[in-house]
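Aim 2 progress update. The chain analyzed this quarter is reproduced below.
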Amino acid sequence: MNNQRWLSQNFFIFFFTWGVYLQYWSGWLTEAKGLSVQEVSFIMGFGLVSRALSTMFIFPFASKYLSNKKLSQFLVTSSLLAAFFYIPFNSFTALFIITMIFSLFYPSLLPAIESSASTLVQQTRIHYGKSRSYGSISFVISVFILSIIIGYVGEKAILWCMIVYLAIMLILQFMPAPDVLSVKPTAVDRSQSFSMRSLWKIKGFPVVMVIVILLQGAHASYYNYSYIYLQQYLEVNTFYIGIILNVAVLFEILFFLKVDYLFSKWKTSTLLLIAAVGSTLRWIMIFAIPNVWVFILSQSLHSLGFAMAHYAFVQYITNNLPKQQLSNAQGLYSALAMSLSAALLTLFGGYLYYITPGLAFLGMTVFTIPAIIITLLSRKVYQY
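Predicted structure tokens:
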């Protein structure tokens, strides 16, 4: 089994499903299931809460009893079964319940794959960035393919594409995997010394977690308001908006392709500092110069604000945490940095957007500037 190829394949197929979920799920609930925007917002909002609880508690708990391979098999199977329950139901109550169940399993696949990646990097020394770039590439391909399919058959195809992709992912999970991912956790692995509480006692971990929470949460306005900002405020043709937004993913792909060769020897604190500065510059640019070409230029900074911050966290836990703590760390990261912080900052960004659209992006510097300060003050103290 080629470990690098196995990880690349798993990132590729997961992000194929992730493109469906992030870009089209709300639209599918609205157009195919007939829910109102308010109902969809309510469902997806509580879905984020369910996702956060799952990745923070259920996923780390399950990882103490199941091997990486068995856990991934369980999560994919549960996600696929939950997706089938969407087919016969159209009422708000039923779709709310199904979404809560689906959110307990499907989003946990991301920290599960990331945990497997950290294990493989730690024990077999493969290149994380090279495999992770396949995820970004597949995300773009997935969005492009589904947009074409929807154009021909409508939004009803969204759920069926998700089901087909999950079925393919399930088949891959039952194929041979690296031996280290099939090792079942022992009673020692479940001891208090490897609990989530003990994770916070590891030197440097709390401060690194706070910094990535600030940096990843600061993308809330971009994820939620960039489309309407381009469409309504900068008056960009809808046809070009998707292309413009994918510029960020293009730079993300280029970053992950080269990151292991360029930055693997750099300190985590240096990577986080660059990410925080790059993110701050990005939001200032969009606010200060409300121009479509400046917005496109700012997209290149996604490789720093998002991708470098993500890589820095993976690098830190891989180099500093024992294997038994990787799932705990990935669960916390997914719950706090990728879910709850974004959910809370979306409300803050929405308030600023209604004052003036550009302010929603500038407001994110309220979180990126403290990230710069914390990194500068803590890097010598914790030596990370």
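The mean pLDDT is 89. The CA atoms of residues 195 and 325 lie 8 Å apart. These observations will guide the mutagenesis experiments scheduled for the next reporting period.
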